[in-house]
Write a structure and sequence with these properties.
single chain; alpha/beta; 5-stranded parallel sheet; 3-stranded antiparallel sheet; globular
């Protein structure tokens, strides 16, 4: 059985996510998705709309996904590959050439899949007038304005 592993936040689930998961699953028999926990997103300076448990449940409902595990830190990847007997790690092509995942080639195959053109969570947030938090402050528009800072 060929096992595939991918990582991500998977917030505001959209067609690009589904397409990535479909293509990742097509590379093997068993797809594991490691989803960034809320605490890890805080470390990365990201704020997800949905909490970890909700994002996990949404991914578990997708027929291409066989197992969802938490991504709690950058360093866990080698352990994940070993623990789950992963043959291939799949990531979006925007990570290609970075050292963030290439070191895994010593443990398994690493494949970078092209992102779906024209869609991303960042684009959706931007189109809705939202942005990623900046220095821990959400950027949410008030009616008639572009952005308003809300302190946590």
């Amino acid at each position: 059985m060929k096992r595939i592993l991918t990582y991500g936040t998977y917030d505001l689930l959209h067609y690009g996510h589904i397409r990535l998961l479909q293509r990742a699953k097509a590379l093997g028999d068993y797809l594991i998705v490691a989803v960034s926990t809320d605490e890890f997103n805080d470390i990365k300076g990201k704020k997800a709309y949905h909490n970890y448990e909700t994002r996990k449940k949404m991914l578990e409902a997708i027929r291409y996904v066989d197992l969802v595990i938490p991504e709690e830190n950058w360093e866990q990847k080698i352990n994940d590959v070993k623990e789950y007997h992963v043959d291939t790690v799949v990531m979006g092509s925007d990570w290609a050439g970075s050292d963030r995942f290439d070191y895994l080639k010593d443990y398994c195959e690493v494949i970078y899949l092209d992102r779906t053109e024209g869609i991303s969570t960042t684009k959706i947030k931007r189109d809705l007038g939202l942005q990623e938090p900046i220095n821990g402050v959400d950027q949410i528009p008030e009616p008639g304005t572009k952005t308003r800072k809300i302190k946590k």
